[in-house]
Specification:
55 residues, mainly beta, two-stranded antiparallel sheet
């Protein structure tokens, strides 16, 4: 069977995904506030390549 390079099905070839991390912080008055941090992370299935080797 020959090896074949295919688009990663986990990220759809985008090489990564946007992630969200939810945190609770304090405002200037000491009240709890919900914060959302968004960041880009390489795909764990293809290592950020966007493709995988099949076969």
């Amino acid at each position: 069977m020959a090896t074949e390079i295919r688009t990663c099905t986990s990220c759809g070839g985008a090489r990564g995904t946007e992630k969200e991390q939810h945190k609770v912080g304090l405002d200037a008055d000491g009240n709890q506030v919900h914060r959302v941090e968004r960041f880009w992370s390489p795909c764990s299935a293809c290592g950020g390549a966007g493709t995988v080797v099949a076969g």
